[in-house]
Protein 1
Amino acid sequence: MANARRGDLVQIHKIILEPDQRPDSLPSCTKSVPFECWIKGFLIDENANLGDEVRIETFIGREISGTLCQVNPVYDHDFGVPQEALLSIGKEAKKILGESSGE
Amino acid sequence: MDVSYSDVMSRKKDILMRSTGIDYESFEISPIAFDYEKLMASCQYSLEDVQSVLEETGVGNTPLVELKNTTELVRSISPPGKGGRIFIKDEAANPSGSFKDRRAALSIYHAKKLGYKGVVTASSGNYGAAVASQAAKRGLKTIILQEVYDSRKIGQPEILEKTRACEAYGAEVWQLTVGPELFYIMLRVLEDTGFFSASLYVPTSILGIETLGYELAQQVFQREGRFPDMAVITHAGGGNVTGTARGLKKAGSHDTLVVGVSVDLRGLHMASDVDFNRKSFTTGHTGFGIPFLTWPDRTDVPRNCARGLRYLDRYVLVSQGEVFYTTDLLSKLEGMERGPAGNTSLAAAISLARELDRDQILVVQETEYTAAGKLPTSQLTFAQENGIEVRRGDPRENVPGKAIVMPERIDQIQVEDVDMEKIRQSYFANVGKMTKGYSLTEGDILFLSEDSKSSVDFARSTMESLKITRAEAV
């Protein structure tokens, strides 16, 4: 069964420049890897599996092709975990203010 | 058409002329000098025009808030009689949540007026969201090019949030890996689409920011009967400093000291795939701040209208830890939860206000919205996941890419001054390098002195000491 059908929200991947096409002036860690890109849009092909070459219609209606890498891509950035180094900043500041106002 | 790297780059001039509607060559005076004010005036918008364009899409007229608790805290650690009053311009109240709406609004209006069907910009920060938001309101299509991921496809939470915001405003977003080839892909997209280049550095972008300096000067004057003594401005590419300083002058606030602030990320390479996720600030840092002062024309347009060195009286640095600390302080003491990057200048203000007398006024000229990915906990969590040490201690122990140290005490927040003379010398040396073999004229010396806010004598003697000779001396 196909992973994605026409009209599904998907993400495609493209390699824009291979390492040997990148400028020599780059730091070696950057020069040694490809210059890549990911774009989201709606699948134009009837059916497709992850890894297939597909066409998408982007959010502004342009057609772009690339390798299907995600179906229904999620935003997974979050609020992080509580940070001990931040926990008492407010309390310390309020203590100083309490002292300076004579409370 | 050939889309190889070298071929596209060779068509740069034509692509940029078509996509900005500006013939940059017509403003050139010599290989060194150009007519900056003529370029700024070329799109023919007065300050009043700009204000009414911004008003149409709900941009500007943001609240000016006095941070009374923060001021009191600063006074508790200041010498007797010292501790200036700190005000903040709550730019998070703009439609997409930052001052960048001012920067985008006029450009998008202008693009529509010139008949472009869409706009393109390269931005991993608030500017991309501002362009997408303004274009949505004006009915133009938007393509945003973002540097998001390292080669492991791991992205900074702050930038992932910007991808989400841009897509929420209906933009097509290209999420790219690290590298200056962002500019190459931008040229390709501009060529493919015929869209307008909503560069951060075109005249309309800077004219939009002028409203910020103008507004804050007016608001302080109306409330206090005087202009601010100091404006503290986060500095990256130079637009925020340039626009704000020009706006202050247009309001008649000529004596306000213009202070730029960047987060200290010295030592991290901006084009490095490895260093990319070792920083917790994606803009407002030295990786942009210093190079854009010492060579402003390193941009996506032939001449940069954001020229920080023309306007800065002073340039200071703060550490990542000091900014995160200050961000928490703003929430706890003033009830304003805002994004960390927008609080770079507030962190500096805590140090700078201690130098001012109690009746003097300091304005921090921006805040930015906050969201998942764009707050101290998410950014510090990400830093730890990338091997960065996070702790309390002396902020001097901050090491970009290695340790983020939140101050243990408020009095440890202390700006580091950047030597402006060295920055100017470095700018002049770059001018010399870029124009090797060319003989300077007296007009070039005058341009360099204006472009670096230094005296004609300083410009002349520095160029002579760098052995960059003048025409009559040859």
Protein 2
Amino acid sequence: MRFTIAREKLQEGLSAVAASVPAKTTLPVLANLLVETTDRGIRLSGTDLDMAVSTELMADVDVQGAITIPAKKLVEIVRELPSAPVKVSASGEQKITLECSRSKFKLLGLPKDEFPSFPSIRFGESWRIRSGDLQKLISHTAFASSTEESRPILNGVLWELRPDQMRMVATNGHRLAKMEIPINATEVPSSDLIIPPKALEQIRRLFPAEEELEVARGDNHLGFRSPFTAVYTRLIEGPYPNYEQVIPKDNDRIALADRNALIQALKRMSVIASDQTHRIRMSFNSGMLKFSVQTPDLGEAQDELPINFEGDSLDIGFNASYLLEILRNLPTDEVRLTFKAPERAATIEPVGWDDTAKYLCLIMPLRLVD
Amino acid sequence: MSATARRILLADADAFYVAIARLIDPEGAGKSPLLIVGGSRESRGVVCSASYETRKFGVRSAMPTAQALKLCPQAMCVPVPRGACSRKSAEIRRVLQRFTPVVEGASIDEWYLDMGGTEQLYEHEPLERTAHRMRDAVRAETQLSVSIGGGTNKLVAKMAVEVAKPKPDNNATGVHIVAPGDEATFLKRFLLAEIPMVGPKFVVRLERAGLRTVNDVLEHQLPELIRWFGDREGQWLYDRVRGIDSGVVEGHGEQKSMSREETFSTDVADDTTLERELFALVARVASDLRTELLSARTIRVKIKDADFKIRQAGRTLTEAVVSDRVIYGVARELLHELRKRRRTPARLIGVALSGLATNPEPPQLALFADATASLETERDRAVARTVDSVRRKFGQDAIGAAQLSKHEDEQ
């Protein structure tokens, strides 16, 4: 195999696929990238077995072939190379030479047959989704998924596809984010897919907003592709918890607040909140929201924020980190918070959002101990 | 030394395991001067502790029991009375805690006490007097004897307790306090190998420089020691032989982790047996946890494979837990992970709890009604509380999980 590629082009390709290479692995070939020649140039691919990313780059190919190259070292080398064409050649399967201007490197690869094959995706039955819509859904919901290993289903993001709308929901059992966007895609098969957020992050990052993506299923996988780049991911199996049931319908205490001011106050309270629970107390009264936090062995803090509040006054405890994460993702300057009681779910949503999408977040309180 | 000199004690239970083995079996072990605790003639276990009488035959702790019994064939050998040991250990700790709130358990039978700030309380009586009263209280309430060493820091207290321990060949009183300012003089009598943290490898390096005793080191200046042993170790050695140690007594609530482990008499290859052993360990460590009024967020499982390779897996939960059910649920999954990665017979299994908190944090309420978010239910905690109170009243073995009872029968 032998090809020549612009250093910038190669670096761009590497930054696309490098995130799919696992930091630690028991299978040595996974620390490598698969490099194959194609009709148009070369294709770089990486995988951690849960997800795979592959991207095609323009290059001048002299001799066809395929090899695997240690990903971390290749990234480090290309980062330091001067801006000049990079010549890559492989003699046999394992000895790789990389030359750029006056620099020369020799690397040991692994045979390409050891590289796992990509899951088979039925792109023949694919449907089309605008990348920008997906980006919007992902960036507003995926943060709410769980990172605990105790319940794998919550480690995923639910993607509900219907011909007239699509929706993403993520929760860790304590807080939840849900967004839906109207679409008009009659060819879309109605389905509920549970996707690991790590793959969604790559999808959000790698495809430009204006691109139309082809999406298709395999037996237990999902594939997303544009003309040059593809992301494959494992799906998480199982019924997603019935989130509709927990969305409160009768919350009758309503607060309107300035999002930024709320974030600033919460950040101040977080300094004193416990590192483990992040517990703060919020007291809602007509016209004023009072914050307080008391952490044994550390100290206490109070703050106030003028707000618009309707309903009986309320004392409620929250994990300040959960609140902050939600507020940072809300797209408007003003936000609405609704409550029923100190131990019932609260909702948070944007006010006056000029968008076709609908966005709602839920958060469960922390029990206050007086 | 100034008036602000620290007042640190180390209480060390005398022949702890031997004493307890005799206490719970007065007719057998209690009447056998030659007593070895731990392992058996057939097993690969090691000596956990041996009576002073057997030590004359060359029997030492951590020696394979089979070898010990060759040296001293007439000795009686009993298994380690684990339940009784942890119960007695907690009893001693409770007595010590009456004298000062800052008690750090260094092991099951050693406790550091920071007596700083108790001067007024004890009307400025000499530390030696307080130590003797402590010793009497422990003996009266637990039928066990402790020796107490004291001084201005942990190192001196640790060295002093060795001098304090009554042995057949000395007339020690069980208490030895080194007065502030006398640390360096006191330490002169020791070999370097006797200083805590000086291991066999360091001893070899010290001997290469011609250093065997504390006195040998005192003849050299700091720059020389640094040249021989490097900045860190040179300085450390220089301080140590002068009795300088700034280590703090980590009081109650500062405890970082609790653990329990079991070495099998023969390697175990079968998952069901491993699970059952794990379950028994969890029941013990969870009981320890609750006895100390703590809860834990992180659970770790350790396996030592037949080839001595040690592997661990751990998980941190969203909330602190106390119940056998939840801890075992997580521990079992961790065990499966470890076994999936490498399936060889295991010679040891252990479980450790960390991320300890004194009072359980208020629970984060859950969105979903099923047991998703709240790992531990009020029912779990109630079961644990009930089991604990039955055990307090009727003894450690009065109640246990049904799945372990078969195991007990086999023993």
